[in-house]
Amino acid sequence: MLGLFRKTAAAEPAGLDPEAPIEIKTSVMIDQSPDEVYALLDFADDRHQMRARGNPVQRIGSDPDEFRAWFDRAPNLNFLFKVDEAVPGHRYAYFARIVPPVGKRIQAREDYRLEAVDGGCKVTFVNTIQHVPGLTMAELDREVARSTTATLNGLSKLKLQAEKGVEAVFAFEREMGQRPPKPEPS
Fold first, then answer.
1. What is the separation of C-alpha 148 from the centre of its chain, rounded to a whole number of angstroms?
2. What are phi and psi of 52, to 5 degrees?
């Protein structure tokens, strides 16, 4: 699955500054139009990827648009999103916070850039993550590893859902041990 991505770049650990935000950037080709992919990213759209997977997404503010989502795999966490750029078919970016916080992450700016390429869509994702002050290099390395894994996992699911539908995402989650096995028919 990780071979789906053209480029994955995270700062080299030796060059990281524990006090500065880190940036993870990667691109993936998706065999769908930019408009179809955008609909999966736009929290205001009924086709949003999390809604389609059965997770509630609620608008909690406007100007700017703000949303709260609850994920079935993390029912005790609130995921808060404040949209700061929305250009249909081209770009969708927001600030994301998890309440209560997970790990040492304060918030992230998740920026999806969509480009029509050969009948499909190139998605370039830039995740800029801010951490609590005073991290050691070992703590920062762990946070970068978690964030990189989450980034690749999220983009894999976006690609699967766009190309093959929700059931493909559920199968991927079962394969990765993120969801219990599908019950056998009786």
1. 10
2. -65, -25
Task: State whether residue 146 is helix, strand or coil.
Answer: helix
Q: Which CATH number fits domain 2-175: 3.40.50.2300, 3.40.50.970, 3.30.530.20, 2.60.40.420?
A: 3.30.530.20
34 within 8 A of 90, measured Cβ to Cβ: yes
38 to 44, 86, 108, 138, 180: CA distances (angstroms):
11, 9, 19, 36, 29
Question: Model confidence over 14-60: pLDDT tens digits?
Answer: 457 778 899 999 999 999 999 999 999 999 999 999 999 999 999 99
Distance CA 77, CA 17 (A): 28
What's this model's pTM, rounded to 2 decimal places?
0.85
How is residue 44 annotated by DSSP?
T
CA distance 82 to 93: 9
